[in-house]
Amino acid sequence: MGLYGVLFSPWYVVIFFGALLLLASAVLSWTLNREWTRWIPIAGNVLLASYFLPAIVVVVRRGGFAQPTKMITRMGVVALVVISLLVALSNKFDSRPIK
């Protein structure tokens, strides 16, 4: 703990590692073409969703609809995370072999 409390939120670490896993999965799946590389984007997206989904619930409970432009932007970010997770899951459980 710092002088005035916690220096930073532990959620920043979760977001950082989620983004780092997504970056690593993009590079590894492009270069290696192995079956195990399909799990990396799922892990990265789950880390990001573990932050963004509860955060949007908190915003809605606090009356986030009072500022519609901010709410649309926040919902857009959450939608991108969820869509990315669904694409990663569909790619992992696709029955076609990796080329």
Give a structural overview.
- The protein has 99 residues and is an all-alpha fold.
- The protein is 70% helix and 0% strand.
- The chain contains three helices and no strands.
- The model has no long low-confidence stretch (mean pLDDT 88).
Structure at a glance:
By secondary structure, the chain is mainly alpha-helical. The protein has helices spanning 10-31, 40-61, 68-92.
Number of strands: 0
H/E topology pattern: HHH
Name the shape in a single word. flat
Average pLDDT over all residues: 88
| Biggest sheet record | none
Q: What proportion of the residues is helical, as a percent range?
A: 55-70%
Separation, N- and C-terminal Cα atoms:
50 Å
Helix count, DSSP H or I runs of 4 or more residues: 3
Please compute the radius of gyration using only Cα atoms: 17 Å
The unreliable regions are none
Quote the beta fraction: under 5%
Structural class comes to: mainly alpha
